[in-house]
Amino acid sequence: MDSQQARELASVDAIGQAELVASGELTAVELLDAAVTRLDAARGLNAVITDLFDRGRKQAGALDDSGTLRADGVRPLAGVPFLLKDLGSSLAGTREAMGSRALRSHVATESAWTVERYLDAGLVVFGKTNTPEWGNHCTTEPLLFGPTVNPWSPDITPGGSSGGSAAAVAAGVVPAASGGDGTGSIRVPASCCGLVGLKPRRGRSSFAPDGGQGMEGLVNGHALTRTVRDSAALLDVISGSAVGDPYTVPLPETSFLAAIAHPPSAARILTTTDSPFPGAPTHPEVIAAVEAVAHALADLGHSVDAGAPSFDPDAVADAIAVLHTVSNAQLHAFGKHVLGREPEEDDFEPSSWVMMREGFTTSGVAYAEAIGTVHAQTRRFAAGMDGHDVLLVPTLLTAPPPYGLLNQPRGTTRAFFDVEFATTGWTTMANVTGWAAISLPLGVTSEGLPIGVQLMAPDETILLQLAVQLEAAMPWSGRLPTGWIG
Q1: Cα–Cα distances in Å, from 267 out to 151, 263, 264, 397, 465?
Q2: Is residue 241 among the annotated active site residues?
Q3: What is the pTM of this model?
Q4: Which of 131, 174, 169, 132 lies closest to 152, judged by CA?
Q5: Is 58 a catalytic residue?
Q6: What gap in Å lies between CA 150 and CA 156, rounded to an integer?
Q7: Would you identify the family this protein belongs to, as annotated (predicted)?
Q8: Eight-class DSSP state of 208
Q9: Which CATH code is given to the segment(s) 3-313+371-473?
């Protein structure tokens, strides 16, 4: 396959690429070689920080030799090249630095349960993507690996913490890549890079083998994609629980991929463009994008009402700050284990160091109260949604932000999150409540940059069904970044 053919494959989504292999038109090895060609052409983005080409070719060759791909309708993604975020998607025997200088020599000894599911589905893993340290930032510019460039513009962040994955997908290197989301870390880069970014509901998949939950339930993993159907198919792959998981949710009656073939019943949608946090205005172009989606949903037969659930933003911000200080104290302990010595300030990012120092003095009572606050505000939020199925809000309150804004120390962890929430607005409430939330690339700024619009609901099915309707009514596939390598 020549370079031109490899680039042409950039516009084919994951399901489409798998169909090329299943039909015998291409082999899994040929798909992988094409993806490597595109990755080499996009090196300037600094999206991929660990190449795993040899393991990818070995896996792809084994898939081709097995002969199952030619008629495999059970695994709709088999043979597709795939990238793993270098945080929360450990692959045994490969480096896992998690964006931290303290962990630069760390090699994973076990594969994450979700990664095993990806491999069982026939996805061909051939690299790991850039991420900020410990996923702390909604931007991707770690000191260890340097910033990832947004394919839309070198002046705006690709978002974070799944920014490397988002940039690789947005540029056309791969049709999909894994991500994780603790206060918006899938949806923020989806908004910044013009992609589909779904945060699943709490408990949808497992944190096995080494965890029962992520940051007291705030964190969930999934992927960045360009099409809704790819997001649904990948969610099918990771849905379920491992033996002994402390929290689980029922599997849907039908697969998510099958569910999106059917339109949803008329949904009752509540919508607002106001920021949930004081002193954080919403940009007029973001407001216009959300309002356009509200009109489109009404035209599709859904009921759309103005309003929003209430919660105590100050209590939420305090609780999020406390949970992050404890999480970063854990990073310090892990860094000590990997380094074999007491970590020093220079081993970590300045903002992480602030969180760690606070974490060392966070009391058990404060931690327990933060968890209690999360639960109490979840109940208040849910009560405010009574009579409605879905919340429609901005993903970001602003246009894609510049570098150097969302990763800086602010003196205290709470001050750090005050700055973040002034940009991200509603994203964290999906993590607090455990609701599913999806960002869709349904708006564009006057400068041609992407604007994400967000839908939240207790379960993923209705979000994916609405997303398919919007994908048809307000298509985004023709909008490509200047850094597109197809």
Answers
A1: 35, 11, 7, 24, 11
A2: no
A3: 0.98
A4: 169
A5: no
A6: 6
A7: Belongs to the amidase family.
A8: T
A9: 3.90.1300.10
